[in-house]
Amino acid sequence: MANTYVWKIADLNRDLSDGFAHTAHYTVTAISDQVDADNQPYNSGAYGSIGLDRPNTLADFDDLTEADIVAAVQAKLGGAEKVTEIQDALAARITEQINPTQASGTPSGW
Fold this sequence. Notes:
Radius of gyration: 19 Å
Number of strands: 3
Low-confidence stretches: none
Strand order of the largest sheet: 1-2-3
């Protein structure tokens, strides 16, 4: 099983006075190469928000790229180790979807 991980920026909060983007709201989606009975890929996602550090030189808000903000989010989270930890947790959820070890419900006679 192989997963693809997609990091996206859902929204940014900024100061209107200078355009400093101080908070990023991000999503991470893991998409499996395996599909379910409806031929849809298994997937799992996470959402978070994190405060960003003010850079020495501010870029114009409209010049910010999603890739740059994703990189800033990942660095602020703790770098590659934390990114791997998040992605591993999503992979574990997909594994649980494919090969469940837990279930919920009531007995059929109720």
